[in-house]
């Protein structure tokens, strides 16, 4: 199953992919947004049943939102591909680098990524996003995939000079409208377990700049869920952004930065394509 969140003249809504487009209803008619269907009960199967006979529409008729518009937590993993660790001259980590993003930084498929006035060094990062369904603490690795509602595509736009101004990376990852997320939440039954073995790419203005396989992850999806839940309770709708492979702009020669007028697409095999134009922050 594939779900989107959107806005229309009727307000915020949720829809499921159908043969002719999408079938959706306003949040007010469903009794909650997509995140409210991710816990124990009701579930996504119940949501699909509610949307089975809903009005059908095409994407141009609505404005997309990130699949989970307001996650409680956005937990990001750094240096989680062997190829990316190698291109930066880092040793393969024994424990994942974890940092946070925030909802103010999220934009949907088709919405602009904003290069801030504070820096010209806005970079792209193709990443797999994991959306938590059933929450929990101390989740065992062998049970972790039972806690996943679905997967999506993420562009972890990074303001590189701010990222390295302190020992923590959060500042460079927290700028408004620099993290693209979507367009769909795709349930795990359509994908290999933990999305292992999927091709993941960044395409900037038609040129492929990142091209890798999720099997190159150092810490796979079940391991990440087990590690993160050791410290904190994961909640329905939390998003884990699982890291990027090699080919980021900062490590290219010459370096490549996102500029106003660019179009950046992130593709993950079996999940979808996320495309965003780049604009400059207003003065």
Give a brief outline of the structure.
The chain has 283 residues and is mainly beta. Helices cover 13% and strands 35% of the residues.
Core attributes:
single chain, 283 residues, mainly beta, Fumarylacetoacetate hydrolase, domain 2, 2 domains, twelve-stranded mixed beta sheet, five-stranded mixed beta sheet, 6 helices, 13% helix, 35% strand
Any overview of this molecule?
This protein has 283 residues and is mainly beta. The chain has 2 domains: 2-65; 74-280, Fumarylacetoacetate hydrolase, domain 2 (Alpha-Beta Complex). It has 6 helices and 19 strands. The mean pLDDT is 96. Strands 1, 2, 3, 4, 5, 6, 7, 8, 11, 12, 14 and 17 form a 12-stranded mixed β-sheet that branches. A 5-stranded mixed β-sheet has the order 9-19-18-15-16, with no helix packed on it. Strand 18 and strand 19 (272-280) form a beta hairpin. It has helices at 27-30, 44-51, 82-87, 160-163, 170-173, 221-231, and strands at residues 2-8, 11-18, 21-26, 56-57, 63-65, 74-78, 97-101, 106-107, 113-115, 122-123, 126-132, 148-156, 158-159, 179-186, 199-204, 207-213, 239-241, 263-268, 272-280.
Number of strands: 19
Give me the strand/helix succession. Answer: EEEHHEEEHEEEEEEEHHEEEHEEE
| Helicity level | 10-25%
Find the structural class using helix and strand composition: mainly beta
What is the alpha-carbon Rg in Å? Answer: 18 Å
What is the CATH-assigned architecture of the largest domain? Alpha-Beta Complex
Strand share of the residues?
35-45%
The largest β sheet comes out as: 12 strands, mixed
Tally of separate domains: 2
**Shape summary:** globular
* CATH C-level name of the largest domain: Alpha Beta
CATH topology of the largest domain: Fumarylacetoacetate hydrolase, domain 2
| CATH H-tier superfamily of the largest domain | Fumarylacetoacetase-like, C-terminal domain
Overall pLDDT confidence: 96
Low-confidence stretches: none
Number of helices: 6
